[in-house]
């Protein structure tokens, strides 16, 4: 019997990725406090946040596998979350200009029936081209950066800034599908 899947995220990008690989799921976003302690262990930080999200939602269900995820962008040991406003987005994009940075996504699965859980993370590197002030301004005016870690979306117009990547593209979008697939297999869910 296939267990129901619950995505503990409101992210349209994560929903699109799960749809892309043919998963049937419901969405039930968690509302946990996402304040993060100061740490340089970014991978374990996002893995823990993903687990907290999945656990918060799992309490609402008797059965099903809850998928939690959290993504951050890191440059020079500084976390770039979602920009609070246009000024913050401008600062982030200016700092990312011409630089390599890391994108970390934590993924967690929780079985609501048994409370069995696993959480892992993926890291990818992204190199931005040198951005002009007008490119930054026009991108901010598009509205795209405002709900994305690091103030850009590689799956949208932000792709125009990306010179190179190293690692899992889908991790940069917000859900590393290869890792997720392996994690689902460990729960007895085979997608192919």
Automatic annotation (TrEMBL):
Pfam (any one): Maf
Cofactor (UniProt): a divalent metal cation
GO cellular component: cytoplasm
Site (Important for substrate specificity): 13, 71, 155
Keywords: Cytoplasm, Hydrolase, Nucleotide metabolism
UniProt-annotated location(s): Cytoplasm
Enzyme nomenclature, EC number: 3.6.1.9
Any single GO BP term: nucleotide metabolic process
Catalytic activity of the protein: UTP + H2O = UMP + diphosphate + H(+); dTTP + H2O = dTMP + diphosphate + H(+)
Keyword Transcription attributed: no
NCBIfam families xrefs: maf
Similarity remark: Belongs to the Maf family. YhdE subfamily.
Protein name (database record): dTTP/UTP pyrophosphatase
Native source species: Tepidanaerobacter syntrophicus
Taxonomic classification: Bacteria, Bacillati, Bacillota, Clostridia, Thermosediminibacterales
